[in-house]
């Protein structure tokens, strides 16, 4: 099983490393690494360039996470190469609940997350991985991910803090995976992704505690 995991990890990393935030901002004449929070994620792009570019980056970052996980699952269930899961050929493994098969998708997602956060195309700089994680997790654990996404929306609109919403949603993802009694490998990856996302937000946590974190506030467009 080492060969398929290695192939999936390489392709997953390269998919994740695609610097959509940088490219979208560059198309607008902006170097996203030099403005705002200097982060190429969707939040900073939205803050600097507006909702349209920001939403586009979020969608593209989510898509590459989904592609990395889905490709890993699909490619090794259609191949005729004689890899096996518990003595069953991968092409006949059949069910996403097979832990070794799911582990292939997990490898793709984790590799994409690393690629997004440490892109070889941008001198190993990158985003915090929220959108990329969500895209891959939708493929691997859709219900738990939708629950976490709903919590993200609720926390964001209550607080207007993207970072706080992301941190709380990461914790909820793990709880949802456990309560829904998903396979152990998925509960484990939920915990790993949540830990990674929270770690990438450590500076935001400090600012939240200090009361200096930036929040999205609706602009008053009414005329006096």
How many domains, as an integer?
2
Strand order, biggest sheet? 1-2
Order of helices and strands: HHHHEEHHHHHH
Strand content: under 5%
Question: How many helices?
Answer: 10
Distance between the termini: 67 Å
Mean pLDDT, all residues:
85
Structural class: mainly alpha
Low-confidence stretches: 78-97, 220-224
For the secondary structure, the number of strands is 2
- Helicity level, as a percent range? 55-70%
- Shape call: globular
Output the radius of gyration.
18 Å
Oligomer: single chain
Largest sheet: 2 strands, antiparallel
Top keywords for this entry?
224 residues; disordered C terminus; two-stranded antiparallel ribbon; 2 strands; mainly alpha; 10 helices
Describe this structure in words.
There is one protein chain. The chain has a two-stranded antiparallel sheet with strand order 1-2. The protein has 10 helices and 2 strands; from the N terminus they run ααααββαααααα. The chain is an all-alpha fold and 224 residues long. The termini are far apart. Residues 78-97 and 220-224 have low confidence and may be disordered. The radius of gyration is 18 Å and the shape is globular. The protein has 2 domains: 1-128, no CATH class; 141-216. Helix 5 packs parallel to helix 9 (184-200), helix 7 runs antiparallel to helix 8 (162-179) and helix 8 (162-179) runs antiparallel to helix 9 (184-200). Helices cover 68% and strands 2% of the residues.
């Amino acid at each position: 099983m080492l060969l398929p995991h290695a192939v999936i990890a390489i392709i997953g990393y390269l998919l994740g490393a695609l610097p959509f935030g940088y490219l979208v901002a560059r198309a607008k004449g902006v170097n996203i690494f030099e403005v705002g929070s200097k982060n190429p994620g969707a939040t900073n792009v939205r803050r600097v360039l507006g909702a349209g570019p920001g939403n586009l980056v979020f969608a593209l970052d989510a898509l590459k996470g989904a592609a990395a996980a889905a490709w890993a699952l699909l490619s090794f269930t259609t191949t005729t190469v004689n890899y096996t899961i518990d003595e069953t050929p991968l092409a006949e493994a059949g069910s996403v609940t097979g832990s070794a098969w799911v582990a292939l998708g997990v490898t793709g997602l984790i590799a994409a997350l690393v690629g997004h956060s440490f892109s070889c195309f941008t001198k190993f700089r990158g985003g915090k991985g929220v959108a990329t994680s969500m895209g891959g997790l939708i493929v691997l654990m859709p219900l738990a991910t939708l629950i976490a996404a709903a919590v993200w929306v609720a926390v964001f609109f209550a607080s207007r803090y993207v970072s706080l919403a992301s941190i709380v949603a990461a914790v909820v993802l793990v709880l949802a995976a456990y309560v829904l009694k998903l396979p152990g490998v998925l509960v484990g990856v939920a915990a790993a992704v949540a830990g990674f996302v929270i770690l990438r937000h450590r500076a935001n946590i400090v600012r939240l505690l200090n009361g200096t974190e930036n929040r999205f506030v609706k602009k008053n467009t009414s005329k006096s």
